[in-house]
Amino acid sequence: MTRRRFGHLVAGLGALGFLEPQFVARALGPAPDRLSWRAFRTATAEGHWQLTDIEGEVPRDLHGTLYRVAPGQSENHGVRLRHFFDGDAFVSGFSFREGRVDLRSAFVATPEREEELAAGRMIYSEFGTAAPKREDSPAGPLRFKNQPNVNVIHYDGRLLGLSEGGHPTAIDPATLSYQDRWNFKGSLPLFVPFTAHPKFDPKTGEAFGYGVTQGPGTALTVFRMEPDGKLHKLHQVPQAGYHMIHDMLLTTNHLVFVIPPVRIDMAMLFAGEATVAEALRYFESEPTRILVLRRDGSGEPIVIEQPATMVFHNGNAYEQDGRIVLDTILSPGDGALELLHAHASDRLPEVAPPRVVRLELNLEKRSVALRSEGEEEQEFPRFDSRRSGENARYLYTMESGIRDDPLVATHLVRHDLHEGGTARIGGTEGRALGETVFVPRASDGDETDGWLLLQGYDTERDENFLEIRDAGTLDLAARVWTAQHFPLGFHGNFVPDVFVASA
Ligand SMILES: [Fe+2]
């Protein structure tokens, strides 16, 4: 057996959980020695468990499931994956019912994953890692996976795994098994991928999504997600090239997009010489555009320009006296893109930190009336979803507290947007935290009436845990240990009254 074939065999077995990850790492060479790598490395088990190792007490009125999704591998059939976004989707569901916690976790068995497992080799390129070239396959464009590993939502009776690079992937909420690619009952065109960050308005029951058309006639296509499970097209806004548009904001009357000057070089991609990450270009001399559209599909787009900046995620937004006030996370330059691509490197580059920024838009003058900058090293903004589109008091973010490892969050920060100041928890040595999810206790309570759920990873125990914290005090109600290692991942959502099949 050649060294390469041995590597393929080892990594394939490792991805299925048949080999200890330390053994896989030895076969591929030394892995980076930092918390972000340990917390995001390949999942070591799939299955279902009733969790009983609990500090504190799980609130009995927490009733539903926290679903989260992650890139589930740091290597694939003998190839170390380079980018933070690489890896087959690994979905987890923590179900809470009368104080009992059931956990179910599994790789999403997409056709591409199954094809690679059957072949015993990496066939498809990842976002930032090319599949090895083979002498027996003709030269041509790289083949990419549609990886639903960025976010997971519950819509129209099913889970949708989302990636922004393709159509959603339908997943069974009880078993987490793969169902199908999802085109919203035929209403999502073939060459329009779907965002990883659709928005929901709990007051009206409306939902909105979008995608940037691939191919000629590139446009931002915006949809309302109808109760019958279909999409209704609201806007089609032409774009000069394939722009990366990762998130949007919702106000009472508008949809707002903060669009960085980042485009995919499609010619480079189709030439078959570059991954998507390598074909991403940041244009320093171009503005970051704030695009404002009406929610009802009427009117012309309003565009307000700001200096070039990188942006992935936004917080909340609201309207007041004809103005829109929004919170977003901005970082100067293309350092964030460089950092994500360096995930598997020995050392991460030093880059400018992302920070919370509040912008007040004057729609009539098409200008930014006010710009105020908040805390640094913040990402993954969330808020009480009952306050979507309102002047909410609190914004939650995850803070990176390790100077040479900004890919991992160590603290949860609550920003008081009315009174000023912050409160933070976390900072335990060797512990990483994932994005928080606010779960309201009731449909009509105030912003402190709920829980904050936080998935985390502990180095000493080499184990993931889930924290339940009181949203009013940030105090720990319960920390539930899983006895497993799962990659931490990026996003997730709580679904009331829906549960994984119990152990
Ligand atoms: Fe995201």
Q: What's the short story on this structure?
A:
The protein has 503 residues and is mostly beta strands.
Fold topology:
Layout: H1 3-15, H2 21-28, H3 35-40, E1 47-51, E2 54-56, E3 64-71, E4 75-76, E5 79-80, E6 89-97, E7 100-107, H4 111-119, E8 151-155, E9 158-162, E10 169-171, E11 178-181, E12 199-201, E13 206-212, E14 219-225, E15 231-238, E16 242-243, E17 249-250, E18 254-259, E19 262-264, H5 266-270, H6 276-279, E20 280-282, E21 288-294, E22 302-306, E23 310-320, E24 323-331, H7 335-341, E25 355-362, E26 367-376, E27 378-382, E28 394-399, E29 411-416, E30 422-426, E31 431-433, E32 437-440, E33 450-458, E34 463-470, E35 476-481, E36 491-496
Bound molecules: fe (ii) ion.
Fe (ii) ion is lined by residues 150, 196-197, 246, 312-313, 490-491.
